[in-house]
Write a structure and sequence with these properties.
The chain has 8 helices and 13 strands. The chain has 313 residues and is an alpha/beta fold. The protein has 2 domains: 11-103 and 267-285, Rossmann fold (3-Layer(aba) Sandwich), CATH 3.40.50.720; 106-261 and 293-305, 2-Layer Sandwich (Dihydrodipicolinate Reductase, domain 2). An 8-stranded mixed β-sheet has the order 7-8-9-6-10-11-12-13, with helices on one face. A 3-stranded parallel β-sheet has the order 3-4-5, sandwiched between helices. A two-stranded parallel sheet has the order 1-2. Helix 3 (57-66) packs parallel to helix 4 and helix 4 (81-94) runs antiparallel to helix 8 (286-305).
Protein backbone atom coordinates (compact mmCIF):
# COMPACT_ATOMS: atom_id res chain seq x y z
CA UNK A 1 0.00 0.00 0.00
CA UNK A 2 3.00 2.30 0.43
CA UNK A 3 3.39 2.17 -3.36
CA UNK A 4 -0.14 3.49 -3.95
CA UNK A 5 -0.67 6.53 -6.16
CA UNK A 6 -3.90 7.73 -4.57
CA UNK A 7 -3.29 7.18 -0.86
CA UNK A 8 -0.51 7.54 1.67
CA UNK A 9 0.12 5.23 4.62
CA UNK A 10 0.48 7.83 7.38
CA UNK A 11 0.88 5.71 10.48
CA UNK A 12 0.40 2.44 12.33
CA UNK A 13 -1.29 1.63 15.64
CA UNK A 14 -0.62 -1.07 18.20
CA UNK A 15 -1.80 -1.79 21.73
CA UNK A 16 1.85 -1.25 22.68
CA UNK A 17 3.61 2.00 21.77
CA UNK A 18 7.05 0.40 21.56
CA UNK A 19 5.73 -2.18 19.11
CA UNK A 20 4.08 0.57 17.05
CA UNK A 21 7.28 2.62 16.99
CA UNK A 22 9.32 -0.42 15.94
CA UNK A 23 6.94 -1.20 13.08
CA UNK A 24 6.77 2.45 12.03
CA UNK A 25 10.57 2.63 11.96
CA UNK A 26 10.89 -0.55 9.91
CA UNK A 27 8.28 0.73 7.43
CA UNK A 28 9.46 4.37 7.43
CA UNK A 29 6.05 5.58 8.58
CA UNK A 30 5.76 9.08 10.07
CA UNK A 31 3.39 8.21 12.93
CA UNK A 32 3.13 5.51 15.58
CA UNK A 33 0.16 5.19 17.95
CA UNK A 34 0.15 3.36 21.28
CA UNK A 35 -3.53 2.49 20.97
CA UNK A 36 -6.18 2.11 18.31
CA UNK A 37 -8.18 4.86 20.00
CA UNK A 38 -5.28 7.27 19.55
CA UNK A 39 -5.18 6.63 15.83
CA UNK A 40 -8.94 7.13 15.49
CA UNK A 41 -8.68 10.44 17.35
CA UNK A 42 -6.14 11.83 14.87
CA UNK A 43 -7.94 14.35 12.61
CA UNK A 44 -5.25 13.92 9.92
CA UNK A 45 -6.23 10.31 9.29
CA UNK A 46 -8.93 9.89 6.62
CA UNK A 47 -9.22 6.10 6.49
CA UNK A 48 -8.00 3.00 8.28
CA UNK A 49 -7.08 -0.51 7.22
CA UNK A 50 -8.40 -3.05 9.73
CA UNK A 51 -6.29 -6.26 9.65
CA UNK A 52 -7.14 -7.36 13.21
CA UNK A 53 -8.28 -10.90 14.12
CA UNK A 54 -11.67 -11.81 12.65
CA UNK A 55 -13.63 -11.25 15.88
CA UNK A 56 -12.37 -7.64 16.01
CA UNK A 57 -13.28 -6.71 12.44
CA UNK A 58 -16.80 -5.45 13.09
CA UNK A 59 -16.22 -3.82 16.53
CA UNK A 60 -13.26 -1.76 15.37
CA UNK A 61 -14.74 -1.04 11.95
CA UNK A 62 -17.74 0.45 13.73
CA UNK A 63 -15.56 2.50 16.08
CA UNK A 64 -13.51 3.77 13.14
CA UNK A 65 -16.62 4.68 11.14
CA UNK A 66 -18.09 6.57 14.08
CA UNK A 67 -14.80 8.43 14.36
CA UNK A 68 -15.35 9.56 10.77
CA UNK A 69 -12.80 7.23 9.17
CA UNK A 70 -13.42 5.25 6.01
CA UNK A 71 -12.57 1.56 6.49
CA UNK A 72 -10.89 -1.09 4.38
CA UNK A 73 -11.48 -4.22 6.47
CA UNK A 74 -9.73 -7.55 6.05
CA UNK A 75 -11.66 -10.64 5.01
CA UNK A 76 -13.87 -12.09 6.28
CA UNK A 77 -15.48 -8.80 7.21
CA UNK A 78 -17.34 -10.41 10.14
CA UNK A 79 -17.81 -13.62 12.08
CA UNK A 80 -21.19 -14.20 10.41
CA UNK A 81 -23.74 -12.53 8.15
CA UNK A 82 -25.79 -11.11 11.02
CA UNK A 83 -22.74 -9.30 12.34
CA UNK A 84 -21.87 -8.07 8.85
CA UNK A 85 -25.37 -6.67 8.39
CA UNK A 86 -24.82 -4.26 11.28
CA UNK A 87 -22.31 -2.43 9.11
CA UNK A 88 -25.04 -1.33 6.68
CA UNK A 89 -26.66 0.78 9.36
CA UNK A 90 -23.28 2.15 10.42
CA UNK A 91 -22.52 3.21 6.84
CA UNK A 92 -25.87 4.98 6.66
CA UNK A 93 -25.39 6.57 10.07
CA UNK A 94 -21.85 7.84 9.52
CA UNK A 95 -21.63 8.41 5.77
CA UNK A 96 -18.24 6.72 5.55
CA UNK A 97 -17.27 4.04 3.04
CA UNK A 98 -16.65 0.49 4.25
CA UNK A 99 -15.07 -2.15 2.01
CA UNK A 100 -14.02 -5.77 2.42
CA UNK A 101 -10.40 -6.45 1.47
CA UNK A 102 -10.70 -9.22 -1.12
CA UNK A 103 -7.63 -8.05 -3.04
CA UNK A 104 -7.99 -10.89 -5.58
CA UNK A 105 -10.93 -9.10 -7.19
CA UNK A 106 -8.55 -6.56 -8.71
CA UNK A 107 -5.74 -8.81 -9.87
CA UNK A 108 -5.44 -8.86 -13.70
CA UNK A 109 -5.31 -12.67 -13.74
CA UNK A 110 -8.83 -12.74 -12.28
CA UNK A 111 -10.04 -9.97 -14.56
CA UNK A 112 -8.66 -11.87 -17.55
CA UNK A 113 -10.25 -15.13 -16.43
CA UNK A 114 -13.63 -13.42 -16.06
CA UNK A 115 -13.19 -11.82 -19.48
CA UNK A 116 -12.42 -15.15 -21.15
CA UNK A 117 -15.48 -16.74 -19.56
CA UNK A 118 -17.70 -13.82 -20.60
CA UNK A 119 -16.39 -14.05 -24.17
CA UNK A 120 -17.29 -17.73 -24.33
CA UNK A 121 -13.71 -18.97 -24.66
CA UNK A 122 -14.54 -22.10 -22.67
CA UNK A 123 -18.18 -22.30 -23.70
CA UNK A 124 -20.78 -22.22 -20.95
CA UNK A 125 -19.29 -22.29 -17.45
CA UNK A 126 -20.57 -25.35 -15.61
CA UNK A 127 -18.03 -26.16 -12.90
CA UNK A 128 -15.55 -24.32 -10.67
CA UNK A 129 -13.18 -26.41 -8.57
CA UNK A 130 -10.22 -25.74 -6.35
CA UNK A 131 -8.19 -26.34 -3.24
CA UNK A 132 -6.46 -23.98 -0.83
CA UNK A 133 -4.27 -25.22 2.01
CA UNK A 134 -1.35 -24.55 4.31
CA UNK A 135 -0.06 -26.12 7.53
CA UNK A 136 -0.48 -24.42 10.92
CA UNK A 137 -1.31 -26.58 13.94
CA UNK A 138 -0.05 -24.12 16.59
CA UNK A 139 -2.82 -23.90 19.23
CA UNK A 140 -1.57 -20.44 20.28
CA UNK A 141 -2.03 -18.98 16.80
CA UNK A 142 -5.18 -16.87 16.39
CA UNK A 143 -6.06 -18.87 13.27
CA UNK A 144 -6.53 -21.86 15.56
CA UNK A 145 -8.71 -20.14 18.15
CA UNK A 146 -12.49 -20.44 17.64
CA UNK A 147 -13.19 -17.33 19.72
CA UNK A 148 -11.08 -15.28 17.29
CA UNK A 149 -12.80 -16.71 14.21
CA UNK A 150 -10.10 -19.24 13.44
CA UNK A 151 -10.32 -22.25 11.16
CA UNK A 152 -9.95 -23.02 7.48
CA UNK A 153 -13.33 -21.86 6.19
CA UNK A 154 -13.18 -18.33 7.61
CA UNK A 155 -9.47 -17.89 6.97
CA UNK A 156 -9.05 -19.21 3.42
CA UNK A 157 -12.31 -20.90 2.42
CA UNK A 158 -13.85 -17.45 2.17
CA UNK A 159 -11.65 -16.88 -0.91
CA UNK A 160 -13.04 -20.01 -2.56
CA UNK A 161 -16.63 -18.94 -1.90
CA UNK A 162 -15.81 -15.49 -3.25
CA UNK A 163 -14.12 -16.96 -6.35
CA UNK A 164 -17.11 -19.12 -7.27
CA UNK A 165 -19.51 -16.20 -6.85
CA UNK A 166 -17.27 -14.03 -9.02
CA UNK A 167 -16.80 -16.54 -11.82
CA UNK A 168 -20.47 -17.56 -12.01
CA UNK A 169 -21.48 -13.90 -11.48
CA UNK A 170 -24.33 -15.28 -9.41
CA UNK A 171 -25.27 -16.58 -5.98
CA UNK A 172 -25.54 -20.25 -4.95
CA UNK A 173 -29.06 -21.51 -4.31
CA UNK A 174 -27.93 -24.11 -1.76
CA UNK A 175 -24.72 -25.50 -0.26
CA UNK A 176 -23.44 -28.72 1.32
CA UNK A 177 -20.38 -29.08 3.57
CA UNK A 178 -18.28 -31.64 5.42
CA UNK A 179 -15.95 -30.50 8.23
CA UNK A 180 -13.12 -32.24 10.06
CA UNK A 181 -12.26 -30.41 13.30
CA UNK A 182 -8.97 -30.41 15.18
CA UNK A 183 -9.49 -32.40 18.38
CA UNK A 184 -7.43 -29.95 20.44
CA UNK A 185 -8.37 -26.53 19.10
CA UNK A 186 -11.84 -27.47 17.72
CA UNK A 187 -11.43 -25.27 14.64
CA UNK A 188 -12.21 -26.72 11.21
CA UNK A 189 -8.89 -27.98 9.88
CA UNK A 190 -10.37 -29.48 6.72
CA UNK A 191 -13.57 -28.30 5.09
CA UNK A 192 -14.91 -29.59 1.79
CA UNK A 193 -18.02 -28.14 0.21
CA UNK A 194 -20.34 -28.08 -2.76
CA UNK A 195 -22.17 -24.98 -3.99
CA UNK A 196 -25.16 -25.30 -6.29
CA UNK A 197 -25.48 -22.36 -8.72
CA UNK A 198 -28.21 -21.89 -11.32
CA UNK A 199 -25.65 -22.51 -14.08
CA UNK A 200 -23.55 -25.22 -12.47
CA UNK A 201 -21.56 -26.37 -9.45
CA UNK A 202 -18.54 -25.31 -7.40
CA UNK A 203 -16.56 -27.91 -5.48
CA UNK A 204 -13.79 -26.93 -3.07
CA UNK A 205 -11.61 -28.08 -0.19
CA UNK A 206 -9.67 -25.87 2.19
CA UNK A 207 -7.37 -26.85 5.02
CA UNK A 208 -5.06 -25.37 7.64
CA UNK A 209 -3.32 -28.70 8.18
CA UNK A 210 -2.29 -29.89 4.72
CA UNK A 211 0.66 -29.31 2.42
CA UNK A 212 0.66 -25.68 1.16
CA UNK A 213 -1.18 -25.51 -2.15
CA UNK A 214 -3.69 -23.40 -4.02
CA UNK A 215 -5.30 -23.81 -7.43
CA UNK A 216 -8.65 -22.90 -8.99
CA UNK A 217 -10.10 -24.19 -12.26
CA UNK A 218 -13.13 -23.14 -14.29
CA UNK A 219 -14.63 -25.83 -16.56
CA UNK A 220 -16.86 -24.99 -19.46
CA UNK A 221 -18.59 -26.96 -22.19
CA UNK A 222 -15.73 -26.22 -24.61
CA UNK A 223 -12.66 -25.59 -22.48
CA UNK A 224 -11.03 -25.03 -19.13
CA UNK A 225 -9.12 -22.21 -17.39
CA UNK A 226 -6.66 -22.89 -14.58
CA UNK A 227 -5.30 -20.15 -12.33
CA UNK A 228 -1.83 -21.15 -11.15
CA UNK A 229 -1.62 -19.09 -7.92
CA UNK A 230 -5.12 -17.69 -7.42
CA UNK A 231 -4.82 -15.99 -4.02
CA UNK A 232 -1.24 -15.38 -2.84
CA UNK A 233 -0.14 -14.05 -6.20
CA UNK A 234 3.51 -12.92 -6.06
CA UNK A 235 4.29 -9.23 -6.35
CA UNK A 236 7.77 -9.79 -7.76
CA UNK A 237 7.10 -11.90 -10.84
CA UNK A 238 4.43 -12.51 -13.49
CA UNK A 239 1.53 -14.88 -12.87
CA UNK A 240 0.06 -17.44 -15.25
CA UNK A 241 -3.30 -18.77 -16.29
CA UNK A 242 -3.69 -21.83 -18.49
CA UNK A 243 -6.42 -22.03 -21.13
CA UNK A 244 -7.20 -25.56 -22.30
CA UNK A 245 -9.32 -26.18 -25.40
CA UNK A 246 -9.83 -29.79 -24.31
CA UNK A 247 -8.48 -31.20 -27.55
CA UNK A 248 -5.68 -33.22 -25.98
CA UNK A 249 -5.56 -34.93 -22.58
CA UNK A 250 -1.75 -34.69 -22.62
CA UNK A 251 -1.78 -30.89 -22.65
CA UNK A 252 -1.22 -30.08 -26.32
CA UNK A 253 -4.36 -27.94 -26.27
CA UNK A 254 -3.19 -25.78 -23.38
CA UNK A 255 -2.06 -22.21 -24.02
CA UNK A 256 -0.39 -20.16 -21.30
CA UNK A 257 -1.22 -16.52 -20.71
CA UNK A 258 1.38 -14.62 -18.71
CA UNK A 259 0.04 -11.76 -16.61
CA UNK A 260 2.50 -8.89 -16.03
CA UNK A 261 3.85 -8.35 -12.52
CA UNK A 262 1.55 -6.38 -10.23
CA UNK A 263 1.03 -6.00 -6.49
CA UNK A 264 -2.63 -6.72 -5.81
CA UNK A 265 -2.47 -4.91 -2.46
CA UNK A 266 -1.30 -1.74 -4.20
CA UNK A 267 -4.17 -2.09 -6.67
CA UNK A 268 -6.60 -2.59 -3.79
CA UNK A 269 -5.34 0.43 -1.87
CA UNK A 270 -5.63 2.68 -4.90
CA UNK A 271 -9.08 1.38 -5.84
CA UNK A 272 -10.37 1.95 -2.32
CA UNK A 273 -8.84 5.43 -2.14
CA UNK A 274 -10.33 6.42 -5.50
CA UNK A 275 -13.76 5.16 -4.45
CA UNK A 276 -13.59 7.34 -1.34
CA UNK A 277 -12.26 10.38 -3.16
CA UNK A 278 -14.67 10.15 -6.10
CA UNK A 279 -17.69 8.80 -4.21
CA UNK A 280 -17.85 5.76 -6.48
CA UNK A 281 -18.51 2.12 -5.55
CA UNK A 282 -15.83 0.39 -3.49
CA UNK A 283 -14.36 -2.82 -4.98
CA UNK A 284 -16.16 -5.12 -2.50
CA UNK A 285 -19.09 -3.49 -0.74
CA UNK A 286 -20.72 -4.36 2.57
CA UNK A 287 -23.65 -5.78 0.62
CA UNK A 288 -21.31 -8.15 -1.24
CA UNK A 289 -19.55 -9.03 2.01
CA UNK A 290 -22.89 -10.01 3.55
CA UNK A 291 -23.62 -12.31 0.60
CA UNK A 292 -20.27 -14.06 1.03
CA UNK A 293 -20.82 -14.42 4.79
CA UNK A 294 -24.32 -15.81 4.22
CA UNK A 295 -22.83 -18.64 2.14
CA UNK A 296 -20.21 -19.34 4.83
CA UNK A 297 -22.92 -19.42 7.52
CA UNK A 298 -24.88 -21.91 5.42
CA UNK A 299 -21.78 -24.10 5.02
CA UNK A 300 -21.27 -24.22 8.79
CA UNK A 301 -24.96 -25.11 9.24
CA UNK A 302 -24.74 -27.84 6.63
CA UNK A 303 -21.76 -29.42 8.37
CA UNK A 304 -23.92 -29.65 11.52
CA UNK A 305 -27.17 -30.82 9.91
CA UNK A 306 -25.67 -33.02 7.23
CA UNK A 307 -28.15 -31.52 4.77
CA UNK A 308 -28.30 -28.94 2.02
CA UNK A 309 -28.62 -25.43 3.45
CA UNK A 310 -29.82 -22.24 1.79
CA UNK A 311 -27.83 -19.03 2.32
CA UNK A 312 -29.92 -16.52 4.26
CA UNK A 313 -29.42 -12.84 3.57
Amino acid sequence: MQHCQYCEVAGIASRDLDAARKAASELSLPKAYGSYEELLADPEIDAIYNPLPNDLHVPWTIRAARAGKHVLCEKPIAMNAAEARTLLAVEAETGVRIAEAFMVKLHPQWLRTEQLIAEGRIGALRLVTGAFSYFNADPKNIRNKPENGGGALLDIGCYLVFAARQLFADEPTRVLALIDRDRETHVDRLTSFLMDFPAGHAVFSCSTQLVPHQRIQAFGTKGRIEIEIPVNSPADRPTKIFVDDGGDLFGAGISTETIPTVDQYTLQGDAFAQAVQNNTPVPVSVEQAIRNMAVIDALFRSAETGAWEIPVL
